Structures are given as C-alpha cells and as structure tokens.
Amino acid sequence: MFYQFIGAVTFENGKSEITIPFNIWEVCDTQGTLHIEGQADQKAFACELSPLGKGMYTIPLNGSVSAALQGKTSDIDIRFQITNRKAYIETDSPYSLEKPIRKVDSMKLITQPNDGLCGQTCIAMLAGVTLDDACEIMHCRDWQASMGKMVDTLDYLGLAHEDVIHYTQGKDVTLPKCAILMEKMGRYSHYLVIYDGTYFDPTEGILEEFDKTNLVGYLEITTF
User: Fold this and answer.
1) Domains of the chain
2) What residues of the chain score a pLDDT lower than 70?
C-alpha cells in the first residue's frame, strides 16, 4: 500500500527531510523501525523513517534526492510504501479478488451504536455484512480500526481497491465513485463511505454533502 501527499522539504544543518502529515501508528497500524521506498517528484529514494514521537515521522532524504529538490521546498509530490510492515490478518481467506464476499454495486447504510466503531461500520457497509460480523472479521474493539487494519480486511474479503491512499489535507478534490474517507475529528480520524455521490456516515447517516476541508484523505474502492 502506498501513501501519497503533497509535502515540503526542510533544509537544516546540512540535512533535508520531509515531515509526513499523518500519524503512522494510527493510519498504518505499525510501529518500530520502519523502512520505506518511494518517490519525491518521481525521484526514487529508500530509507528508514526518523521518529518525532507519538506516531509522527519524517522522511530523511539522501544526497542525490536532496540536491535534485534544491530550490523547490514546497508542493512536492510524495509517494511511499512501508516495506517491512506485516499484514494485520495473516490467516487464510475463503475470499479472493476473483471471488469476493460481494461485488460493490450498491450501498446500504449501517450506523454505529456508539462512538469508536466507524471503521468497522465502513467495512460492514462495503462487505454487505452486519457490524457484529465486521468486528469479528477485523478482530478489533472500539477505537482500534486503523486504515491499515481496514486495508488488510478489504484484502481478506477480496474487495478490490486502489493501491494508494491519497492525502488531500483539506484541499478540494474530485472523489471517486466509491471510497473510504478519513475525516479529522479532534485527536482521531472518523471514517465514512462515499458511493455514487452520496455519503454514508456511521454517525450522521446518509448525507448529500460533505465539507472537503475536513477531509484528510481517501482510499478508492473498486465498483461494478
């Protein structure tokens, strides 16, 4: 899974780095020493992330990439993947891309009974199962459904999706037909689903409009 955002390079004391604008622990559901590969304005790099603390990291740039970006400190297209992350669900699945749990060709609203279950509720809506079933498949309780766990669950269920999470950071974008949206709400992210121009919010219900300035990013889901 790739993570894509528009970033900026800071140059200080002979070093250059790019701050990742989201919490790696929360989004990717992984901690520790993290190795990545990616591109900065299509210039390839591979490195180990530098921790800032509490899930925030920077990307240290090597000499050749740093030199190539001299004079362009902002509006840099960043794309990377974590190469040493382990999948959250490692058991064999009865589903596959050829035989998914269902074809995503419609959407039915499911609401969460209490806060902290929005990620599981999104999976339930996409998979066409109950919220209880989604929680059982994901093996996570309230406030534990990261985007990383949701991606692993989509793979387990055979639900096809794009291989990149786009971080829009509040910018106005054209959203795909179907996607999991991440909305910033205080300390945590809130998840909801867009399908065919309608927003299915686990808390608010069906919405015809959504304030994209609150959008952190999205993952496109394949539809039929």
Assistant:
1) 2-82 (2.40.30.100), 118-220 (3.90.70.10)
2) 187
